[in-house]
Structures are given as structure tokens and as C-alpha cells.
Recover the amino acids of this structure.
């Protein structure tokens, strides 16, 4: 033992345990010491005693036997904090363990603590009032994304080789892209969300932040499968890891569209992703075809409808608890209350149907779509949104007077909407036009959440010294082909398993 945590992938660590080259307990102590030394702020809670008991009894014959693992703080593990990364629930303790975590522990993983997340998973940033700022291990002072930012920072930063994630609008793929990791969003329902699985917004999937393709594939083998408390959960796949390297890709068709949905990309990103995609296409023997993908502008309506589950969780604490929440999340709830009614809900459903139809048409013509994961490299870590240049709404939230004026305007709008029922819909359209950057947060990734198809972010080199993710979208239930394509990239152009720093 070197006294430092394992810097290979989790599957390799299990192999080292089985060969007697490393010990689960020593590995745990190395991770705990690294977390103590780290300035990344990737963990919000650590439980050394509980983890040491589990590591001492680790069964290394299990898929992840003995692997120290970070649990995203939006997940539940009985007896640990259940804060949702918010001051509102700062003192709440989980009274149950989620099925996802239960299966991971059953696969041998050793939970050692909770990784930081954005508040209620609502933004793709890595800063909250509860936990402060989480940093990107590739460059201190840059974001690790969100909402699974702490998990990405911990895995890419060499603290643990495995950590859980969740993706309701890109929250696995976005941080994976910013930190040089593999981020797989499986077909909707691949890993159950139970217990207490909300039926809305039908976009959230669970998974992990991985250093390698085989880590991600093994993870889905361990955690996937039906659970009766989540009626959307899918049957267990025969074996993602066992199938790696066995699927023929040659001759399959792909569309390369770096700026999917017309999302604006930062300088150099389109060229970088296109070149990376062309290399992958050549290596895999794919056939690139031109496909016009015109997607509806659905992001604002999607965002507004998502707060219903948050209000259900806040219950009678709202609106008194607004002062404990980040301004962006609290304002999001107020926006939804003022701008979301039956008419806007109907419009949202029509937009979702339109999106489904257009993407179904795309996947009738191609097997894959390759796009960017994020509009650019990691932005400043302290930013409250993923738009470092600022937007109209962000400027309004930057000062108390602006926030008060916005609340007043929303109150007037809410009252006026009772008489003019199409007013919120018209305002949402105007909001989308005037705050395109704000609305586009996660715009490259949320498409697959709404459609429910699998998508994976693959490390594709760096731009200005920071990682760039190349995202591949596939057809529903063809997750194994995305793993296969990622494996081709991994073999042809191996990426750093941890950040060089």
C-alpha cells in the first residue's frame, strides 16, 4: 500500500483485492485520509466508523467487494443526513435506504460518506448555501457541474474510485463532461428510483460517475432491475459488462450534431467535438449521415413543471422556507407558481409529444447521434448558474432589491393569469427568447431525459486544459451499444482515470 487511494478504476481495485495486493480496510483508510487532506469539498458527510466495520467484513468476491464509495447526498442511507443539499432539511436524518444504494451495498460497495450536490438537484452547478463550493480537480476554482458535482469531483480527484449519481436533466453527464469521466444515463427506468418514486417529471434516472466503461457497465448490472415500488423500472439486463466487446458496430449510422437543439457552444467546442466524433466514427466503422434535427423549444416549460415534486417535499414549509434556499431555486418555485397553469401544462405536453415524434424520426434514420455534453469547459465554481456571462434573470437575482422586484412582478402576474389564462404561456415564450442562455442550462442533455432514451458522456480530450465531454445518444433499450461505442473510444484513446493534478 502506498498510503494513497487507488487511481485505477473500481473493477481494477476489486481485482487487486482478490489478488491480495491491497486490502479493503487499508484502501478505506487511504480514501478517508485523502478526503481529510482535500480542498475539493467533494464530501458533505463522512462516516469512518460505519465504513470501517463494513470494510473489515468486505466480501471481495462480490462485484464491487470492498470498494470505498461516495453516495450522492440526494440519495438516502438510513441513519445518515438526508438534507437534499438544502438548509431547509439540514437536520433531517434518513429513515430508510434507497433501493439503488441498497443494491450497490449488496454488490459489495463500502459507503464512506455523502458527496455534495446542488440544492434539490435543481441546477447544474456545484455550490450551495449548505455546503459551500465544490471544486473541479482539473482546476481549482472551476465547477465540477451538477447536480452530481461532488461525486464527479471525488472520483476524478482520486478520493474514491466509485460514486453514485442521478440524472434528471443531465446531472450525471454534465459533471462527467466537466471532469473527464464516463457518465451513463440509461434508458428511463433502468435503475429503480424507489421507494417514494414520484411519477413526475418522468425524467430522473440513477447511475454513477465512472473512470472506465467497464465500471459503468458493472454498476448497471449490480443496480438495475425491477422493483415493484417503482412501476417504471425495467427488467434486469442479461449483462452489460459481459457483453462489452461483443457487439458489431460497423455499418451503423450516426449523425454528428455538436450543437444539438441549436444550443450555443463556446468558442472551439464545436470543432473539438466534431473532430473527436469523426475519429470515433472511423474507429468504429460507423457511417456518418446528414440528418436535420429541429427540436422544439421546450426547456422553459419543462423547467416550470419540474417544481411540483419539490413543492410536495417542502409541504407547509413553503413559502416561509424560501429565505433558507438559494435565490435561484426559490425563484424557480415562484416562477412556476406564477407561470404554470393548466394551459401551460397542456402546452408542455404538446411540446413533449413533438419532441418525442421528432426524435423517433431521427432514430428511424440513424443508430446514434453525437453531440457535445456541455456548451464549454467548466465555468467558475462560484457561479450560481452555468451561464458565467450572466443573464437577465441572473442579474435580477444578484441583489435583494432585484429579488424583491421580481417577487412583486410574479405576484402581479399570478393574479393577472386568473383572468388571462394564456398570459403565462406567452410570458414563458418571451422569457425563453430574452434569457436563452439561462434556459439552455443543460439544453444539450435534457433532451434525452424527456425522451427517455440512453445517452452517455465520453471523455474527449481537453480544451484550454479542461475536459470536454462527447455525448452519444442511442435508441431506447440499446444501452449496450452506447457502452460498446464508449469502449472503442477508451481503447483507441485512453483518457486519464483521475485528474492530472
Amino acid at each position: 500500500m502506498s498510503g494513497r487511494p487507488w487511481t485505477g478504476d473500481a473493477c481494477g481495485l476489486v481485482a487487486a483485492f482478490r489478488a491480495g495486493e491491497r486490502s479493503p480496510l487499508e484502501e478505506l483508510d487511504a480514501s478517508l485520509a485523502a478526503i481529510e487532506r482535500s480542498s475539493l469539498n467533494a464530501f458533505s458527510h463522512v462516516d469512518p466508523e460505519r465504513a470501517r466495520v463494513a470494510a473489515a467484513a468486505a466480501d471481495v468476491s462480490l462485484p464491487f467487494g470492498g470498494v470505498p464509495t461516495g453516495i450522492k447526498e440526494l440519495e438516502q442511507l438510513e441513519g445518515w443526513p438526508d438534507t437534499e443539499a438544502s438548509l431547509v432539511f439540514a437536520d433531517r436524518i434518513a429513515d430508510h435506504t434507497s433501493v439503488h444504494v441498497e443494491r450497490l451495498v449488496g454488490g459489495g460497495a463500502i459507503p464512506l460518506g455523502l458527496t455534495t450536490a446542488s440544492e434539490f438537484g435543481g441546477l447544474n452547478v456545484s455550490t450551495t448555501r449548505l455546503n459551500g463550493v465544490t471544486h473541479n480537480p482539473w482546476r481549482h476554482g472551476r465547477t465540477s457541474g451538477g447536480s452530481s458535482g461532488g461525486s464527479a469531483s471525488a472520483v476524478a480527484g482520486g478520493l474514491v474510485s466509485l460514486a453514485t449519481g442521478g440524472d434528471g436533466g443531465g446531472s450525471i453527464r454534465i459533471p462527467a463532461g466537466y471532469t473527464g469521466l464516463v457518465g451513463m444515463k440509461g434508458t428511463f427506468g433502468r435503475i429503480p428510483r424507489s421507494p417514494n418514486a414520484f411519477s413526475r417529471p418522468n425524467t430522473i434516472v440513477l447511475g454513477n460517475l465512472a473512470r472506465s466503461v467497464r465500471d459503468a457497465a458493472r454498476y448497471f448490472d449490480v443496480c438495475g432491475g425491477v422493483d415493484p415500488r417503482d412501476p417504471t423500472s425495467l427488467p434486469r439486463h442479461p449483462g452489460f459488462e459481459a457483453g462489452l466487446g461483443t457487439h458489431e458496430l460497423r455499418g451503423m449510422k450516426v449523425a454528428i450534431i455538436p450543437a444539438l437543439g441549436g444550443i450555443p457552444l463556446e468558442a472551439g467546442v464545436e470543432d473539438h467535438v466534431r473532430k473527436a466524433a469523426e475519429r470515433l466514427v472511423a474507429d468504429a466503422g460507423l457511417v456518418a449521415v446528414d440528418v436535420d434535427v429541429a427540436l422544439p423549444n421546450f426547456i422553459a416549460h419543462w423547467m416550470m413543471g419540474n417544481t411540483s415534486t419539490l413543492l410536495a417535499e417542502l409541504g407547509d414549509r413553503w413559502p416561509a422556507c424560501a429565505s433558507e434556499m438559494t435565490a435561484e431555486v426559490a425563484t424557480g418555485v415562484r416562477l412556476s407558481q406564477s407561470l404554470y397553469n393548466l394551459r401551460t401544462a397542456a402546452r408542455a405536453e404538446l411540446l413533449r409529444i413533438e419532441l418525442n415524434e421528432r426524435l423517433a424520426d431521427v432514430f428511424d434514420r440513424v443508430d446514434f447521434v453525437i453531440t457535445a455534453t456541455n456548451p464549454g469547459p467548466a465555468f467558475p465554481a462560484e457561479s450560481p448558474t452555468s451561464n458565467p456571462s450572466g443573464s437577465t434573470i441572473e442579474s435580477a437575482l444578484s441583489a435583494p432589491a432585484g429579488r424583491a422586484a421580481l417577487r412583486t412582478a410574479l405576484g402581479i402576474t399570478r393574479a393577472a393569469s386568473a383572468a388571462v389564462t394564456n398570459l403565462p404561456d406567452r410570458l414563458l415564450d418571451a422569457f425563453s427568447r430574452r434569457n436563452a442562455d439561462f434556459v439552455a442550462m443543460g439544453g444539450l442533455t435534457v433532451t434525452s431525459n424527456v425522451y427517455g432514451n440512453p445517452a452517455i458522456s465520453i471523455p474527449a480530450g481537453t480544451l484550454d486544459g479542461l475536459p470536454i465531454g462527447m455525448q452519444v445518444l442511442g435508441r431506447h433499450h440499446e444501452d449496450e451499444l452506447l457502452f460498446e461505442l464508449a469502449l472503442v473510444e477508451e481503447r483507441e484513446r485512453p483518457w486519464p482515470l483521475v485528474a492530472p493534478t
User: Anything to note?
Assistant: The chain has a mean pLDDT of 92. The chain has 19 helices and 13 strands. The CA atoms of residues 88 and 324 lie 6 Å apart. The radius of gyration is 22 Å.
